[in-house]
Design goal:
By secondary structure, the chain is of the alpha/beta class. Among the domains are: about 60 residues, no CATH class; about 80 residues, no CATH class; about 35 residues, no CATH class. It has 5 helices and 12 strands. The strands form 5 sheets. The protein has a 4-stranded mixed β-sheet with strand order 1-2-3-4. The protein has a two-stranded parallel sheet with strand order 5-6. Strands 7-10 form a two-stranded antiparallel ribbon. Strand 11 and strand 12 form a beta hairpin. The N and C termini lie far apart (about 145 Å).
């Protein structure tokens, strides 16, 4: 009886496959490639809504939709036990030969520059786990080879062979809107990295320092309008942040530009910034000039007082 049931089920199974093939819902092609909602022989072994690409074993295409969504959604429950690594998606590649290998690659790009929308190549969101252990994006450099856990660059720079292990490495301008916390900073200053080295003129340094106008100030709030949507306006600064509330001390970039144009930089919006650390050698040079003047005056005073004492003794 059980054997008969098995044979009875076979026609039902093959009928189901035939049905899927006939309607084009699911189709197994003569080369054993599989298509869902695709009726012609695909380029990938398994496709959804598209012909695929011979570069990819599986290819899923999300047609134009009018609501939020995704091509693929993966969800994993929290699991049980402790200290387990539970992932929704695990991706990896084996290293070898002279290949460019990616554990995971994601793009959000248009060859044509657009004036609408936003793009995120990788969007990380994390929160509400153990206090202090929530990372939107976590990069870890493993092994003994040089490189960086996080590497950022722009189209004008590209990658570069690194000469040590870095937690983060950026080729290109980097902007921090609020407070940058560091325990120490080091600026490249090796002699072998410099050209056209010229000692500063101490008198010029002193004269220029006397021209610099130092000021105290507060940040001015800036309002931003979303491109293509004038109704979406937001403040640039969080007015509760220390960086916005505290009084600051510095110089006016436009004024310093008249004295030391090399110390003033401009961003893509035309805003000027000051390389304050470059004022340090000028201040040192000016201080040395001032100290020399003081020493010269002390010598003259000693000479005058010495001559006066000698005359009084006579």
């Amino acid at each position: 009886m059980k054997t008969l049931s098995k044979f009875c089920l076979l026609p039902v199974f093959f009928s189901a496959i035939f049905c899927f093939n006939a309607t084009g819902q699911i189709k197994v092609f003569s080369n054993n490639y599989v298509g869902i909602n695709w009726t012609t022989t695909p380029a990938s072994r398994f496709v959804l809504n598209g012909a695929g690409n011979s570069m990819y074993q599986a290819y899923f295409y999300n047609p134009n939709i009018s609501t939020g969504g995704a091509t693929l959604a993966a969800v994993s429950e929290a699991g049980s036990g402790a200290s387990n690594h539970i992932m929704s998606i695990a991706a990896g590649t084996n290293l070898g030969a002279s290949n460019y290998l990616y554990g995971l690659k994601a793009t959000a790009y248009s060859a044509t520059a657009l004036s609408t929308g936003r793009s995120y190549g990788v969007y990380g969101l994390a929160g509400n786990a153990s206090q202090g252990f929530n990372y939107g994006v976590y990069g870890y450099l493993y092994g003994t080879r040089y490189g960086a856990a996080v590497f950022g660059t722009t189209a004008s720079y590209g990658d570069i062979a690194l000469t040590q292990q870095w937690a983060g490495y950026f080729r290109g301008d980097v902007k921090v809107e609020t407070v940058l916390w560091v325990n120490a900073t080091s600026y490249s200053s090796d002699a072998k990295l410099k050209d056209n080295v010229v000692s500063l003129n101490s008198q010029n340094s002193l004269d220029n320092i006397m021209k610099i106008n130092t000021v105290s100030y507060n940040l001015k709030q800036i309002t931003l309008t979303a491109p293509g949507d004038s109704s979406r306006v937001q403040n640039y600064y969080n007015e509760n942040d220390q960086v916005f509330k505290k009084t600051k001390y510095g110089v006016i970039a436009q004024e310093l530009q008249q004295i030391y144009p090399e110390m003033v930089y401009q961003d893509g919006e035309g805003n000027l910034g000051v390389a304050y650390t470059e004022l340090i050698p000028v201040l040192i040079n000016a201080l040395q000039a001032q100290e020399k003047k003081i020493s010269d005056l002390e010598e003259k005073i000693k000479k005058i007082t010495g001559d006066s004492s000698a005359k009084a003794d006579q």
